[in-house]
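Researcher: Here's a chain I'd like modeled. Treat it as a single chain, no partners, no ligands.
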Amino acid sequence: MATNKLNLLKSFAPIIVMVVLFLIPVPSGMPPQAWHFFAVFLGMVVGMIIEPIPATAISFIAVTICVIGGNYFLFSSDELVNPDFNPAKESLKWGLAGFSSSTVWLVFGAFIFALGYDVSGLGRRTALILVKFMGKRTLTLGYAILIVDVLLAPFTPSNTARTGGTVFPVVKNLPPLFDSYANDPSARKIGGYLMWMMVISTSLSSSMFVTGSAPNVLGIELVSKIAGVNIGWLTWFLAFLPVGLILLVLAPWLSYVLYKPEITHSEEVSKWAGEELKTVGPLRRHEVILIFLVLLSLVLWMFGEEIINPTSVGLLAVSLMILFKIVGWKEITKYSSAWNTFVNLATLVTMANGLTRSGFIDWFSTTMSTHLNGFSPTATVAILVLVFYFAHYLFASLSAHTATLLPVMLAIGNSVPGVPMDQLSILLVLSIGIMGCQTPYATGPGVIIYGSGYIESKDYWRLGGIFGVIFITALLCIGWPILRIWL
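Model: Modeled as a single isolated chain. Structure tokens:
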């Protein structure tokens, strides 16, 4: 009986949150539609945490509500009185915009890459090699994932391409070798830990190098234009290095402690992997072709961004995989995880964009600026960095977050006398990568990893919150004091 009541409460919790916020008076100065939209957005987040129904269904319903009620959730009174403005058309256009996002399609491409690894057998072969040499202990496998991601990061400006398109397809093949399967209680044997290690690795590698994530480059451009602070590749690397080295050593171990796998060591599996490799035999034709496509994609992701967009590289690779019959179109249409994640991310990108469209972000920025009057320069820097960092709970894209909020934070810092803009600027941009661990929708790789089915929603939110705090605390308490001495 108690269980039924709890399930009933979970089912209605998102609706209760929305209704309660609707009944609360609109905060002073906030556009009414912004408050209404925020109520739906928060209800969606609550639903994604407790999952009374699948998370993708929740975000899809949230977008539908806002599309149908566009007059109430999206548009200002000035827009609605304009006779040339068609609210029904504009709300639908807004609702479908996420499906044209390049990030969404890159994530989809990464999933098809993973399917190619499965179908061709290359993923299993690579996983067996990893297990043979590093699989005696689960912890060493975690460090191996981290090392691979960090080594690729300086040359791969898209963390979705790097972690989602290159690392994930290999790691996805590791858990089944230990009888650990997705969407199953056995996921906690080892799969959950290894998947979480990819979240950690992509977050740290994205902040370690300016070329580790596309929003980093956008960030230093905005900093240069708005604050007049120039941050070069070496400056960025040295600024994050003290924090990065500590976190690279501690984060896998902390993940091991806080999300401990059931399988901690297995020499038998390592030996078995060596024997299994002998039975697998030499590389087959499809594996050789896929290796070529992976290398081609890596080279284009690393060095060809001025010629071809990273998403176009992913689509090209998928097309060639179909052409060379590595994967069939029927296999792609049946790959539910890819399509589920595609819809989930597209709707989340749309909902995050709605916070800007409705006027919520503008109100948020103006209110912050007003309330910072009277704070000391040091306190202002700390507050701005923390607000910028934790505001990522409202975004489904690091690029959108950077483009929307970074100029606001820099402008506020510029308006407060005595604020050291060089320190504020570097701290803000260094936080872009590490904030990607906070939620399942925080960044492209996170969506892919969450979509794999190895980490339960509640575990992802819990670990994201814990490591989110650990990362920003390390940046402010270790990185900032060193920056003050250095600068």
